[in-house]
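Minutes, project check-in
Item: structure for the 137-residue chain
Input as provided by the requester:
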Amino acid sequence: MPQVNYLAVLAATVAAFVLGSIWYSPALFSHAWMAENRFNMEAMQAAKPSLGRLLVVAFIAAFFAALAMAVLLVTPMHHSLMIGLKRGFAAGVCWVALPFASSYAFEQRSMKLWLINGGYYVVQFTLMGAILGLMNN
């Protein structure tokens, strides 16, 4: 296994986690996301998902995504802000957003929902790549 800067992985994880809380907040896309998923606050509050569990799952998923990027894409041998940005963007578009497009088409989900969810991962992976590129010196 290549040498991994775990501090960089943790920083990328935290950044992705913070980005998610902003991206899906009322300030940005929560209302549109809920409308496209046909959710409403009453139904979500009635279901009462465990917020702690949701946050733990999101954090673990972001950690492993950052770790995979550190191992596969932005290694100490290939590090810089530009390399991180480019590789993170490519991963977000090619490995997440475009496969989502295929699934969303078959599931007859809206393009607006695809743009919200796919866009989040493009920005998330780009941000992670930038952090890993800067910190993998």
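Outcome recorded: Residues 4 and 70 are 6 Å apart (CA to CA).
No further action items on this chain.
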